[in-house]
């Protein structure tokens, strides 16, 4: 199962896949072909890929980098 990022060159392909029921929207410009898992689980599984797409070159550091654990809302 994959996370697909919509852009100008893929807009028509993604739109057709959503209308055909082969993909679903998770958030603005983020789609998936995983139609069975809850959306929050798909995002959780692909959180680093999503972060890397929107923040290329970003660095994850300190405890989050060492443990690779979930990032809590409070820090």
Quick recap of the structure?
This protein is α+β, with helices and mostly antiparallel strands and 75 residues long. Helices cover 40% and strands 13% of the residues.
Structure explained in plain terms:
A hairpin with a 2-residue loop joins strand 2 (24-27) and strand 3 (30-32). The chain is α+β, with helices and mostly antiparallel strands. The mean pLDDT is 86. The radius of gyration is 14 Å and the shape is flat. The chain has helices at residues 11-19, 39-45, 47-54, 62-67; strands at 3-5, 24-27, 30-32. Strands 1-3-2 form a three-stranded antiparallel beta sheet, with helices on both faces.
Main beta sheet: 3 strands, antiparallel
- Poorly predicted regions are none
Major β-sheet strand ordering: 1-3-2
Residue share in helices?
40-55%
**Overall morphology:** flat
Radius of gyration: 14 Å
Beta content: 5-15%
């Amino acid at each position: 199962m994959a996370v697909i990022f919509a852009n100008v060159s893929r807009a028509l392909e993604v739109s057709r896949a959503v209308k055909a029921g082969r993909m679903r929207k998770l958030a603005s410009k983020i789609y998936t072909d995983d139609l069975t898992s809850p959306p929050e689980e798909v995002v959780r599984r692909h959180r680093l890929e999503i972060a890397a797409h929107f923040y290329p070159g970003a660095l994850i550091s300190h405890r989050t980098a060492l443990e690779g654990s979930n990032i809590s809302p409070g820090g």
